[in-house]
Amino acid sequence: MSAAADSIPPNPHGGRTLIVDAQDARHYPRPSAALEEATEHDQVYVRPGRYEDKIFLSDRPVWLIGAGRDAVQIFNRRGGPLYLQRVSAGRIEGITFRYVGSDQHAAMNVLDSTCVITHCRATEGILSGVLLYGPDCRVVLAENEVCRNRESGIFVFAGAQPRIVGNQCRENHHFGIAVRDPGSQPEIVRNHCEGNMLSGILLFHHAAGLLADNVCHGNQQWGLVLTPDSRPNPSLQELPAANRLTGNPRGAYALLDQPLADIGR
After folding, report:
1. Which of 28, 43, 114, 157 has a Cα at 20 to 30 A from 62?
2. Phi, psi dihedrals of residue 174, rounded to the nearest 5°
3. In sequence order, what DSSP letters do the residues of 147-161 get, joined into one string?
4. pLDDT band at residue 265 using 50, 70 and 90 as cut-offs
5. Signal peptide location in the record (predicted)?
6. 228-235: which pairs have CB atoms within 8 A and are 24 or more residues apart?
């Protein structure tokens, strides 16, 4: 899609639409430049292109819409390209976030935020692709592609309670989705975890969560791994009926005291 051919979506919030287009001097050269000037009801629209940028948003809503995750890429060499901290509302859609450095960073970092992230891609994180953390993290992560990250695809910890629905978590080096810590209690529904180097989903270190209608297929170990102190809903015995956990070489699920032993932790 060319920059001239794409259509600018309407802003349903009553504010302006700020356009990002690195090829057109009439518009903003980077998403972060537009977001710096955006007010509470303004929407930022990113036209197709590859942008070297770092987006840091704190204590405000965000409306950031890209032309599609196959058309818009935001990458960074020195840190994660997206960091949200106490974002109170909003929507991020249609963008690939890619970390291309060598230090310990994720593609998306979401701390204590409440917004919707949908139809995006998180890839090549040295940590997980998406980090969701903090007791006030209530983000909705829906219909995203989280692939080829050096640890897990989506990692929920430190008491976060997000809704994780309809995501494709594939070819990550550890797990498709991992949940850790007391108080962490996501809803994990209709996700597809395939081709991950360990198992599809992991709940460990007192984590809880609703697991329903997920497909964990073709991972290199089990479909699902839990520790004895985790609290899944439904119960361990009911999980295979509530999710599709077939086609994993070690079986549908496992209850392990040391689920990270294979990676030396």
Report:
1. 157
2. -110, -100
3. ES-SS-SEEEETT--
4. confident
5. none
6. 228/255, 228/257, 229/204, 229/205, 230/203, 230/204, 230/205, 230/206, 231/203, 231/206, 231/207, 232/203, 232/208, 233/208, 233/209
* pLDDT score at 2: 38
Burial 240-250 (b: 16+ CB within 10 A, else e): bebbbbeebee
Question: If you ran DSSP here, which 8-state letter would residue 28 be given?
Answer: B
Q: 7 pLDDT exceeds 90?
A: no
Tokens, residue 24: 């057109």
Does the residue 37 lie in any domain? no
Q: The domain spanning residue 120 has which CATH number? A: 2.160.20.10
Q: Note whether residue 73 is domain-resident.
A: yes
* Residues 202 and 225 sit within 8 Å (Cβ to Cβ): yes
Rounded to whole angstroms, the Cα distance separating 77 from 126 reads: 11
- Structure tokens that stand for 172 in this block: 């990550």
In this predicted structure, what is the pLDDT of residue 5? 46
Q: What is the DSSP letter of 239?
A: H
Looking at this protein, which amino acid is placed at residue 198?
Answer: L
Give the model confidence (pLDDT) of 51-102 as tens digits: 999 999 999 999 999 999 999 999 999 999 999 999 999 999 999 999 999 9
| Average pLDDT estimate for 220-231 | 98
Are 46 and 18 in contact by the 8 Å Cβ rule? The answer is no
Q: Is residue 46 part of a domain?
A: no
| 144 has pLDDT over 50 | yes
pLDDT-derived band of residue 6, with 50, 70 and 90 as boundaries?
Answer: low
Count of domains observed in the chain: 1
26 Rama sector, left if φ>0, alpha if ψ -120 to 50, beta otherwise: alpha
- Helix-strand-coil split of the chain, %, nearest 5: 5, 40, 55
